[in-house]
Design a protein that fits this description.
The protein is an alpha+beta fold and 746 residues long. The protein is 16% helix and 35% strand.
Length: 746
């Protein structure tokens, strides 16, 4: 770890001379006050280490130049490579004055020993090119992104390449983040090239890019804060952090919409580095603590490797969180007695008398340290599955493993799990402290150990002021924290939580969701969480398991469920407001299009390409799905993709956005999957249809800047890149890889 007493540290990069690792990092003095001001006071520090853990700070490497200069305000993130003559080249971001905002350019310095650096010529070696990249004064953001140069040799020996944090000059305003590209023959003369990724793929920024070959496979690593994600990802509850993307070549092209998050925002600007044994590790800086305050220090290296399915890099060990901020617990992340455990359900069944199957052939692998959410409508089997893992229900088929043990025949007390219930289950005559300690006392734990665990859990959960109170004197949120604390002091292999927030009011549920997220990041313990609330599922889960009638429908990341549902049920259940559906026809009139209710929307070529089998439906009926978030008021949105003219029936102004409810002249789609996803009966479905005269009721989510009013005509722009198509008979998503086999059997 590297923590400076008088300065914050954040983004960094490394060089290895074979004897020592050289760490170059951004630094700014703490006396400037607010950490947000650090960016405009940044210089490049330098430290060395034999092992990537114990660092010795040496003289600064690069500082801002005297005015006037392209880097006289600040010097930001870069990279170091060694030229063919042995000279070390450092490429860094220079920030200098410009109108109307400071401008980012790429600078160069050289060194013979990695300690003493000379800036090259006093001029930048690369600036952005307006043919491909957003520039001031036309930029949609307050700055012109052209920073964080990562330089690598061409894989075929043909010169050098530079990857840059950049924004494209076209695309949705919230999704213009791209991997910029430049090329050089000699590391001195550079020419900008088109970006290696496309805008419109979910990110406003792709910061601190890096490409390495790990285990023989190229992988792109970049960072993006939650505030830099697209509106759609933010509304779906996606947090930011450090991301990775397996790729075919170190030079892309990079399909960044498929990137997977490695860390949350508490660890940022992750970098891959190989240690002396050849093992790959990740370094990152500590961005903020549980209290939200900026930390600004380098964390210890974390081993990293490919997930078993090869889909992404995963951290082998959760990162310790041991900063010295006031009020923080001293309990290390994923230590102090916690042993993470994989939970494996293999063809699990639970049948009751009369043949009712509450759980039907459920197979699922919950990874070590993963937060897995079970979600679905009432009666889908989610609580039964959880209780089966706990041993509170005896399964009638299959096996359940926790860690390295099959636990089918073990009673709940021997499964090394801890449960948190909806109703708190606190002892009313005991104080908070006694409630926390009671389970440990029954297990004959020593008094000193009980005190240690209770004190640490109380610190972690903010319960120290309430230890002497009884449950009746606590609020609902405080009681739920006590219930969680009682589970934490057990130090189990896994937490099982059965709708623990459902008794809380809406505002308190939001804050408790955040607390649960932070708690899991802090402890790193395998957690299975049951909820009927899809917002909880989307905001809490590393992955979400959607159940229907006891059967697994789809398990994936929240964003993947939202963007690529496997069938009508998942599409209708995930997302709030729900996806809009209509029976439609796929046609080839002057290009691929889909027609319905008097409307005609173009189907982009990329949609046809990325949905194998969709072309087979030309001239046939499909069920079309459009998310409310894929609409925008045409006066504000991109009208080049598709348009719908409607009459706004009802508008709901929610402050940050407006919900527009309108009808289209097409009957409501009747499908068992949709009725069950909406948790309505056939009678309720018919009654709703009657209220709108046999038409379909749709919802659009538009910007708060829209001037739409009740009863007024409205032109809606439709983002046709995200159109969803479903087979009317099976309800399966056309082109989804998990649905292909089912469609082929029809």
């Amino acid at each position: 770890m590297l923590r400076l007493a008088d300065a914050w540290t954040w983004d960094f990069w490394l060089a290895d001379d074979g004897r020592s690792y050289h760490l170059y990092f951004l630094k700014a003095p703490r006396h400037i006050g607010h950490p947000d001001q650090r960016h405009w006071n940044a210089s490049i520090g330098h430290a060395t280490s034999p092992d990537l853990a114990a660092w010795t700070v040496v003289s600064d490497a690069i500082t801002p130049s005297d005015s006037p200069a392209f880097d006289d305000i600040a010097t930001w993130t870069g990279s170091v490579v060694r030229g063919r003559d042995g000279t070390w080249f450092m490429f860094y971001t220079g920030v200098g004055p410009a109108d109307p905002a400071p401008k980012q350019r790429i600078g160069l310095a050289t060194s013979a020993d990695l300690h003493h650096w000379s800036k090259h010529s006093g001029s930048p070696v690369l600036e952005s090119d307006s043919r491909w990249y957003e520039q001031l004064p036309d930029a949609l953001q307050p700055d012109e992104a052209w920073r964080d140069p990562w330089v690598l040799a061409d894989p075929d020996g043909d010169g050098w390449h530079m990857l840059v944090t950049a924004r494209a000059c076209d695309g949705p305003a919230d999704q213009r983040g791209v991997i910029g590209h430049a090329r050089s023959d000699d590391l001195i003369h550079w020419q900008a090239q088109p970006p290696l990724s496309r805008p419109g793929e979910g990110f406003g920024h792709l910061e601190v890019p890096q490409v390495e070959v790990v285990g023989g496979r190229p992988v792109l690593v970049f960072s993006c804060l939650g505030a830099g994600l697209s509106d759609k990802r933010r509304k779906a509850g996606m947090p930011g952090g450090t991301w990775c993307l397996p790729c075919d070549s170190p030079l892309g092209p990079f399909d960044v919409k498929r990137a997977v998050r490695i860390t949350d925002e508490s660890l940022y600007s992750g970098r891959l580095v190989s240690d002396r044994t050849g093992r790959w590790t990740m370094l990152a800086f500590r961005n903020h603590g549980l209290d939200g305050r900026f930390i600004g220090e380098l964390a210890d290296p974390m081993p990293i490797g490919w997930a078993t399915d090869g889909s992404a890099l995963t951290l082998d060990v959760a990162e310790p969180m041991t900063d010295a901020l006031p009020g923080r617990s001293s309990l290390p992340h994923n230590t102090g007695g916690f042993q993470m455990a994989q939970i494996v359900l293999n063809h699990v069944e639970k049948a009751y008398t009369g043949g009712v199957r509450a759980v039907d052939d459920l197979s699922l692998d919950v990874k070590d340290g993963e937060f897995m959410v079970f979600v679905g409508p009432s009666g889908c089997g989610k609580s039964t599955a959880l209780r089966s893992i706990a041993g509170l229900e005896e399964i009638t088929g299959g096996t359940i493993s926790i860690g390295d043990r099959i636990v089918n025949d073990l009673p709940p007390k021997d499964r090394d799990i801890a449960m948190v219930f909806q109703n708190y289950a606190l002892y009313p005559h005991m104080t908070v402290e006694q409630n926390l300690a009671f389970g440990l006392q029954l297990r004959k734990t020593s008094k000193d150990e009980i005190k240690r665990r209770v004190d640490e859990a109380a610190k972690m959960l903010g319960l120290e002021p309430y230890l002497k109170r009884k449950p009746a004197a606590l609020s609902g949120g405080q009681r739920q924290r006590v219930a969680m604390g009682r589970a934490i002091v057990r130090e189990p292999q896994a937490f099982l939580m059965d709708e623990p927030l459902s008794n809380l009011d809406a505002k308190l549920r939001v804050s408790m969701r955040a607390s649960l997220n932070q708690l899991h990041e802090r402890l790193g313990v395998t957690t299975v969480y049951v909820t009927h609330d899809q917002v909880e599922a989307m905001t809490l889960g590393d992955r979400v398991c959607v159940l229907r009638d006891g059967r697994l429908q789809q398990v994936d990341t929240p964003q993947a469920l939202f963007e690529a549902p496997v069938n009508l049920f998942v599409a209708g259940f995930i997302g709030s407001p729900a996806m809009n559906f209509v029976s439609a026809e796929l046609v080839r009139d002057d290009g691929a299009a889909v027609t319905f209710a008097g409307y005609k929307l173009p189907v982009p070529a990329d949609v046809l390409k990325n949905k194998p089998g969709l072309a087979d439906y030309f001239g046939k009926q499909v069920i079309l799905g459009i998310r409310p978030s894929d609409f925008e008021d045409a006066t504000l949105g991109n009208t080049s993709r598709g348009m719908m003219r409607v009459t706004a029936g009802v508008t709901e102004e929610l402050g940050s956005e407006i919900m527009v409810i309108f009808t289209i002249d097409a009957p409501h789609v009747e499908h068992a999957s949709l009725a069950q996803a909406a948790e309505v009966s056939d009678d309720e479905d018919e009654a709703a249809a009657a209220l709108v005269g046999g038409k379909s009721l749709w919802t659009a989510r538009v910007s708060k800047e829209s001037r739409v009013k009740n009863g007024a005509p409205l032109e809606l722009a439709v983002d046709t890149r995200y159109l969803q198509f479903f087979d009317p008979a099976s309800g399966l998503s056309i082109g989804h890889p998990l649905a292909a086999a089912g469609l082929a059997e029809q």
